[in-house]
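Thread: "does anyone have the structure for this chain?"

Original post by V.I.:
We have the sequence but no experimental structure in hand. Need at least a predicted one for the grant figures.
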Amino acid sequence: MLSWPRNVFRLPARRGAFVSGRIAGTSIFFYTRARESVSGLIVALALAGEAAAIEAPTSVKFDDISTHSITASAYVATPGFTGLGGATAGTNIAIGGTYAGWHVNGDKWTTKANVPTPRYESAAAVLGRKIYLLGGYSPSYHNENEEYDQAANTWLTKAPMPTARNQLCAAAVGGRIYAFGGTNGSPLALNEEYDPAANAWTTKANMPTARRMSAATAMGDKIYALGGDNGSVLDQNEGYDPSANTWTTKTAMPTPRYKFTATAAGNGKLYAAGGCASVKLSTNEEYDPAANAWSTKASMPTPRYAHAAALAGGKVYALGGYDPLMNVNEEYDPAANAWTTRAPMPTTRDIFSAAAAGGKVYALGGVTSPYNQNEEYDPGVATVFAGLEPNTQYTFKAKARDSSGVETGETANISTYTLAVASLPLAGTPPFTVHYTSMTVRWSSGTVSNNMFNGPGARYLVQASTCSDFDTIAASSNTANIWAGMTALKIPTTYYFRIQAYNAVGATDFSWFYLGYETPYYLPTGCGSAYNVRKDGMADYTGIQDAVDAVPGVLVGTACVVIRDTATYFEQVTVRGFTNNNFRVQIMGDPGFVSSAPVVSPPAASTAAFEVRNDSVTIMQVDVAPVTSMQYGVMLSSNICRLSKVDVLSPSNHIWRAGISI
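Reply from O.Q.:
Generated one for you, tokens below.
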């Protein structure tokens, strides 16, 4: 007896038929049966199944762009891609025309290294491929700061937050992380900044509105803190500018709520989804910072609160949540304004954190016990391209294939630039040349260690501040050079310098490279001009004789050669050929030196450390200490010459005629 499956398609009595209505990414199997016209015998035959074609990608999205890497994702409008799960169906992305290889086993969850400190109601923020999990509760308030390396699947403990708290929110801008609000008994307005490079925290300007259970997300160089609760359900939208350390009130959310998600989608807009306002919500509202306006978008299929969300491949993944406790995974495509359901989380939970890195989404902690789960969701569309040159244009395209190995067509080529880099100047080049009330600042467009330097078109914003936290800016310069002159500086004031690099299309991650600090030189009393000397190159001249030779032959004021360090100079200094006009040439150590002085130790066969053959010359606060044989320490053969605080030292009797000859 034959057993037949339920018929999906009924084909007419002919040798072949066209089947329509197939769903991309699903398999279809064919059975035929025939009746012998005389005997009536039924003959059945099962034919091979065939996989329906997967949707062809239409574009490439860039999840993360840095100086040396790009995370690129194949994109098609939701609900595609269909049927990415399995060992054959997948996506493939090319860089420069060369495909990276098939990314298979998409739409899949994998268990990763557990969160070191079990907790819930924490906050997560991402910098590059590192995720930082902050604060939380279980069974007390936490201040832990734990860093997850997505590429290595490892955790590191970092400097804890200054303030233990839960129900906080966090976001990252410019290489720094900002932790806002929360509670440790009452709603907080706190704003604490974490610098991963220094592994240190700094307190910043408080939010205007104290609150807990709010949401925050970064767009460009600003952060938006939204909603929450402080005894009342809030609709606040407050924008934070980390560079200025200031807050601005923006247009309020249309729907007041707490325990919702806010996700920046890479299109210059953010999406506030779900939450609670006496009832669980499915509301999805879009905020456009450029217009400072909100609009309503397609609602989440599942109303909920205490869920988490993250962006990968240009799409928002809304995970888990409450009422009841759930493990749902719903994908929102802002470009299509459409939702679809994806593979559910392995662990049902709420009040957890989610973050995306390397084109994958991570669900961290939360309630279900033991509160330390780390589960990775791979949409199956992303590839990380590393080892790239900074400020360089790269071209990408994508294709897909179905479960039978049939490939789609390719997208058009889509190009983007890596970010530009700024670093310390190359070896032998000082970062500062210090002048009187001004400085020349230098940096590099790359590093020798990896031999990677910015391509053409990079620009640099250089800022000087009298504050190490750059709360106020004293001077700035925007330049395509790898140096900048900073003028009108005050003395004796220490200035701090930082640089922000922009690529050829004006993009930056808003991070700053800290160059260092220096103090502009002041003009010593009685000097009409100063020719500054510093052996390490951080002044106008690296040698005393070079500075003397730079003094004009006809003096129009007292010309001071000021040695700004206490280094030993292995040279003979000769002064002659000046027309004084009742002014002087003065060679001197920095007047700020109290118990030390620069040293002159001339080379072999020198006549003296200082040979003065010009009238009206002063040498002061400079020591002479030869290590080779010579006739004199100082030889003066002109009128009106002065020596002050000059020690001539010859413990090994290298000076064989006189320490000072007049």
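V.I.: this helps a lot. The longest helix spans residues 544-550.
O.Q.: and Helices lie at 544-550.
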